[in-house]
Amino acid sequence: MRKKIIFATGNEGKMREVREILRDMDADILSMKEAGIEMDIVEDGATFEENAAIKAKAVAAAAQAEVIVLADDSGLEVDYLNKEPGIYSARYMGEDTPYCIKNKNLIDRLEGVPDNKRTARFVCAIAAALPGGGVVTTRGVIEGRIDYEEKGKNGFGYDPIFYVPEYGCTTAQLSVEEKNRISHRARALAAMKEELEKKLFA
What we know:
Elements: E1 3-7, H1 12-21, E2 27-31, H2 48-63, E3 68-78, E4 84-85, H3 99-109, E5 119-129, E6 135-146, E7 162-164, E8 169-170, H4 176-182, H5 184-199
Parallel strand pairs: 1-2, 1-3
Antiparallel strand pairs: 3-4, 3-5, 5-6, 6-7, 7-8
């Protein structure tokens, strides 16, 4: 019997990325909506890993079935700003504040700061709630720096200000294929895929 994996999101873009990376696993990959689960989850953990685990366990409890539930939590850490906005990236300056305003605020707070002190990273933690109650977490990171203005239309969120020196552009200027290959979520998912294959698909 094929295993079922529920990914705790309603974001279609994220689901496409997840399905692409996990496509050769012998499992059906469902969104929360496809699994018939609708719930608001309070993410009050102190780390990306804790928040991802909170989501995964809550959805697993709601599923009431032998399923694997994956959940992610991700954000931007800016070293010069004491790793802000960090786990509050989505809620930074208010959840309904447009990212163009959030991005301008970060650029303004780094005014006059040289390249070598504008270092930042995107972090993604993924938690898997396994049948039987165990939880496994993985982390993916992409290093870069905060640019001086928004550039690119391919990304969302903080992508237009996140400059990746090895590619010479922001993550919003990368093609979808390139971004999916190097993104923090892609790296965390690839690591999770290895963990699941060892534990459940071996």
